[in-house]
Amino acid sequence: MASELAGLAVVSAAAAGALSYARLATSRLSPGIPRLAALLPVLLLLPVLPFAFASIHLRTISAFFFVWLCGFKLLLLAAGHGPLHPALPLVRFVACAALPVKVQDGKQQQQQQQPSRALPSGFLLSYAAKAALFAALVSARCCRARMPAYAVPVFDGAHVYLMLELFLASAAALARALLGAELEPQFDRPYLASSLGDFWGRRWNLMVPGVLRPCVYRPVRARLGAAAGVLAAFLVSGAMHEVMFYYITLEAGTGEVTAFFALHGACVVAERCWQGSGLWRPPRPTATALTLAFVTGTGSWLFFAPVIRSGLDKAIIAECEGMLALLERAGRNLAAAAHLV
């Protein structure tokens, strides 16, 4: 634990320094090749930072933050596109670059001004329930081998969803405290998705489509059409997931994760063609059930296979159990201290 905390301090300082340099350098250069050249040292440093962690969770989450999201944001900055801009205050620039967040624009904040005052209690209650459910899933992991075949993909999918949302919500809470601003949501109830396009584009891990649209989809769509843009975005997502899996397994990718996203990209294109043709569409509850069944089924086949085959799923669960035990001890210590007071 001490070594991981030391690694966290080193990584945080290195990232803050590199991003401060990125802001300073780009403020003096015009968009294009000059900015890209100035950002190259930062883009080369970011993939190294996650290796400071021995923990699979810290290594993978930091890779997602720095290698994928921050790297793509810096590429957009080099081209003169948001969400980053050299004119942003330093703290906001660093937080928006390093953390998986996007600050709401003025119109969104005005529209949500009244509801946001009532947000904290509902927010805390929702995430407390999700944390309790995640703890229950971790505790029940020993029963996974005895589950029916149809239940395993649902179990694995729920585990990944809750773990991701809790990690990203923690990062968003830090960003909200630093920035004092409302942030765009990171998830929007993906279990209610009525189509693959709805699931990937509007509900699941929204920071990813937030960088893939301007980096990949829109440039390709402008040249080759919407279908090519969708396929390109999913292929890039698959390639980046292979990179994320490398940080998990520390082994070369097998291509299965890329195949998963290529399959889903092709299905989203086919889905759009079907919807545009005016043919029969199933009722929303049926469409939601079919969408979730397809995502969990193909995920079990292609997405989870590399981690399970390597046996690292057991190490990941062991880390989760360790974190839960640490939180439980901390809670007991706080309760004991409060009782003494």
TrEMBL record:
Name of the protein: Wax synthase isoform 1
Family per record: Belongs to the wax synthase family.
One Gene Ontology biological process: lipid metabolic process
TM regions (residue ranges): 36-54, 61-78, 122-140, 226-248, 287-308
Residues covered by the Wax synthase domain: 184-262
Any GO molecular function: O-acyltransferase activity
Main localization (coarse): membrane
One matching Pfam family: MBOAT_2
Organism of origin: Panicum miliaceum
Residue ranges of coiled coil: none
Membrane topology annotation: Multi-pass membrane protein
GO CC, alphabetical: membrane
Localization, UniProt: Membrane
Alphabetically ordered keywords of this record: Acyltransferase, Membrane, Transferase, Transmembrane, Transmembrane helix
